[in-house]
Description:
The protein has five helices and three strands; from the N terminus they run αααβββαα. By secondary structure, it is α+β, with helices and mostly antiparallel strands. A hairpin with a 2-residue loop joins strand 2 and strand 3. The radius of gyration is 26 Å and the shape is elongated. The protein has three domains: 63 residues, no CATH class; 47 residues, no CATH class; 27 residues, no CATH class. InterPro entries: COMM, Commd2.
Amino acid sequence: xxxxxxxxxxxxxxxxxxxxxxxxxxxxxxxxxxxxxxxxxxxxxxxxxxxxxxxxxxxxxxxxxxxxxxxxxxxxxxxxxxxxxxxxxxxxxxxxxxxxxxxxxxxxxxxxxxxxxxxxxxxxxxxxxxxxxxxxxxxxxxxxxxxxxx
Length: 150
């Protein structure tokens, strides 16, 4: 009836969905939304309709997106143990350390435990990477991103 191919309609709906979900996620203002859609080259009437559609539905879209977000487990406690193998039948003098971690997590009011085992050098590398990630979270760029995500 429209005289347009199926692919064009599908891409249009996907584009509109993406525009509305990303705008709602970032909770952008009316002016920012208008600036975003102005670049697309639509008529002023269509821009006003899109703005009204965004303003009418952004709260509902945000609530749907929050329901769809995965419920990630949270930290409860950690138990650890250091095991060292000093010798075996074939090698009488060897040192083979291993760190065993038991991570207790809360997920949907249920407690689960994950047992992990690694050698100390890998654990040190993991600690360095986590400290580097925490350091990056203190940069202005990451703070801006986190502030816009809320």
